[in-house]
Amino acid sequence: MAESLWSRWRASTVDVAVRMPSSGELQRVQRLFLQTLRGDRGQELQRQWRALGCRFAPLGDGTIWILEETRREGRGFYAFRPIEALPVVIQAPHVFHDLGSGPIVARLFTENRWLAAAWNTAPRRAKLDDGSKLDLSNRDDTYFQAFTLAASQVMTRGRVVQIHGFDAAKRRTAQGRKSAVILSSGQRKPGTTLTTIGGCMTALELGEVRLFGVDVFELGATRNKQGRLLQGVAGVAFVHLELNRATRERLERESSLRGRMAKCLADLRVCRHPRRGGR
User: Fold this and answer.
1) CA distance 7 to 81
2) Domain containing 148 — which CATH number?
3) CA-to-CA separations, 108 to 5, 127, 260, in angstroms, rounded
4) What tens digit of pLDDT does each residue of 179-211 get?
5) pTM exceeds 0.90 for this model
């Protein structure tokens, strides 16, 4: 299933010409994401997505549905399970730059009963007409952010997890260079959720697992727009994982390691099922 999902992502990245959505379009999209995350799979919802240049359709046996662009405007690629899925949303906003992050997210999503997943479909450094860059983790005016907002509104308690990658040679500090994993919540200090995940991941023997704000002071995602959005949402934690190359390579290869890491990320003592209503 991960291979089928990933082949659809690759197709969605061909001949992309980035166009930013209007504020009105984003409001409409956020409502459609809410319907989609709540489990709507009807013809009318599919029609509304088509009107925006997107195809919403089942993948394989229909347990997973995907949202892919037909206009190729850099809106992203999304996958969904029914509302009864575990309230974990996993994202890879820098697939082209953070090598391996996209396939890792595809495998984690298909191998676990998680609610939804999202990937970028245009490079983070793609230049826009106003000279700014597309980087989905650094903008509010994107489908990616509308998706994150909608996800936060359908989960009573849950987690939004982002997978990133870093080059150890480019780190500023010895702590950063020696890290296998840098965990952050997008805030200056880790909370209970992040500390729990860090302890769990340390037991995986990946190498040095460090918490931003305690063990290391770089790659903390303090300006990440999804992280900032979720700071105001009670019960929904933002979990930002920076992985060195060796860790990404292991996660791509080793299904057992992915399974153990997934248990750390979706601690059932913390997560609860999504709710059908919104805030």
Assistant:
1) 18
2) 3.40.630
3) 12, 31, 11
4) 999 999 999 999 999 999 999 999 999 999 999
5) yes
